[in-house]
Structures
1.
Amino acid sequence: MSTAKYRSIFTASTAQQRKENFDDYWIFTQQHGGELLEEEKDLLKKRAKLEFFQNNPVKLRTPLANTDAFYRNYITMVDDPKSLDRKTLMLTGIYKFARHEWVGIKGAWAVAPSMADSRTLQDKISRVHLAEEFCHVRLFEEMLRTCGLDEVEWLPLSPWKEKVYEFFPKIPAFLLNAPAFVTELMGVTFYSHLHHLFDDVLADEPEVRDRLQALLDEITIDEAAHVGQRRNFIGATGIKISKWLVKPFYTMFFNDIPEIGLLFDLQQMMKDGENFDFNELPTHIVERSWIPSYCKV
Ligand SMILES: [Fe+2]
Ligand SMILES: [Fe+2]
């Protein structure tokens, strides 16, 4: 007999269930992040969490041997990536993933209605969601600082990629929902694999390993909730399309980051995306996150 607590994220749902789940998510997200600070693109409780980490820093026992290698390759890989040590490769890979996130949310924040202009519950949910994503970029920056990298800049992508990200949020909702959901799913998959990578690459740096995992947990809790929330925008046909999009999306996105293929098992990540059901997430993540009612057994 299966003891699984949760069903596949691609499980069918009715329009009525999704309406009720939006109401439930809205209650969750307000208490989870605290007050929205619209001007600062921030949330009160999340800011306090970040400040706790900043006020209680940990440091590498052995500083990075070659920070020049990081700064030379973090925007664009110029060296042969196989020539870099795994710590540097992991850190440039984290930056590149976070940079895509930052570019994507910058474009979306500019076109999405502010909280004051939000007319629907979905608008409000999406505004808070975007503010959470800005918090993630700050948490990623704190990971890099913890490793002694405090001169990281957040730079735009190439002009055509910036255009793609600017165009993305202007796509009508019924077309946008499936790719937006798969993007969140890709985030949770990446963060789960990154958590394991920290165990491996930072085995000789237990304090920094624990801190980076704690910072990552804050992100993963939000992202697991985002997966359920974005899934909740999608009906019967859209959810079939979403499952079909996992492989091409993961392939396209991760192939753009040369570090990923060297550090992660992309085939396994795609399988994890297609099979995602919350059961593999650690209890301490699930307890603080949000799962749609129709994914609960
Ligand atoms: Fe995020
Ligand atoms: Fe997200």
2.
Amino acid sequence: MAVGTVLVTGGTGYIGSFTTLALLENGYDVVIVDNLYNSSKVAVDRIELISGKRPAFHEADITDEAALDAVFAAHPEIDSVIHFAALKAVGESGEIPLEYYRVNVGGSITLLRCMAKHNVTNIVFSSSATVYGDATRVPGMIPIPERCPIGPTNTYGRTKVMIENVITDQVEAQRNNSKNAGKPSDEWNGALLRYFNPCGAHPSGIMGEDPQGIPFNLLPLLGKVATGERDKLLVFGDDYASKDGTAIRDYIHVLDLASGHLAALNYLREHKPGVKAWNLGSGRGSTVFEMIKAFSKVVGRDLPYQVVERRQGDVLDLTADPTLANKELGWKTKLTLEDACDDLWRWVENNPKGYRQDPPASFIEALKANKA
Ligand SMILES: NC(=O)c1ccc[n+]([C@@H]2O[C@H](COP(=O)([O-])OP(=O)(O)OC[C@H]3O[C@@H](n4cnc5c(N)ncnc54)[C@H](O)[C@@H]3O)[C@@H](O)[C@H]2O)c1
């Protein structure tokens, strides 16, 4: 008997697929909804290969209320939602803002409406460290605690802040409405998980990030430079006030990030806290040059890069203070960025076409041998 059943929106995407895996490995059943805009259905097969369990999958758009409603109706066992589905390219969000507000904010409202209709009352939401914007504008906010004032510097970040507010208002309203009706008032709960820089792949080498277009994040781009698909990495600015002039980020292995979702969901179910925000990061900041060095070491040669102008909206330092999640959720990162580089390279080197190719047979054999 499952511990619970979780609807995972965006569950074939990068973080969603790893969180689905973590849920299945920890006794939950999972129903995925994804429109495959930036992912592949093959992720479901890989999840099954690793966990021995297959999540239910529905190809549907979260902005389509009738389709989403039908998924909830088909799975009355769903008791919680982990919500990843979104558009996430910072640069693009400034070019087509209405599309970002429609999908990210509109889609979240549709989801919350369906949850209310089907009496599903726990939501874990993929927020982002981008909600803080340039935390160096406020003294004493690096590493960034949750109490750091919100101040996103781009449209994507503003959609995340809006969704955080929509979830907060909805949870509080539902709690008040229940109280006024003389019913238990702690049913509705929300976790706002502000992630720092997710990276890495599954150590088996058969599951990783496989975006449909050009990746925007540093490590996947470095992977493409290492395989020769791109000739060099563009470094956006080396005149920041860091030790080597490049921007500082907090890299978190996707396996640690996935277990953070599990910890947050369990916390909501056990403690019924209402809405709470937690940073999910390692607390360790690394510059772009340090990351190039770390990944080059794993690949075994220096990877070419070129320094270009700063990118608009980029900030100097996004390093998490993860103390609250460490204490309240009993969660801490276990893997290092060196682990992430190792795992990413194993994935990229052996699966240059991502999910559009079969993984090496020896990797599947190793997985089976591990299970036997
Ligand atoms: N990767 C990061 O660096 C990062 C950092 C902070 C927050 N986040 C957030 O985490 C979440 C997951 O990010 P990811 O890196 O796994 O991205 P991803 O693109 O791999 O995953 C998002 C998934 O949502 C799906 N999707 C998009 N629009 C949809 C729609 N209208 N209906 C149904 N499905 C839809 C995509 O097909 C994809 O599978 C996003 O909300 C993102 O904003 C990501």
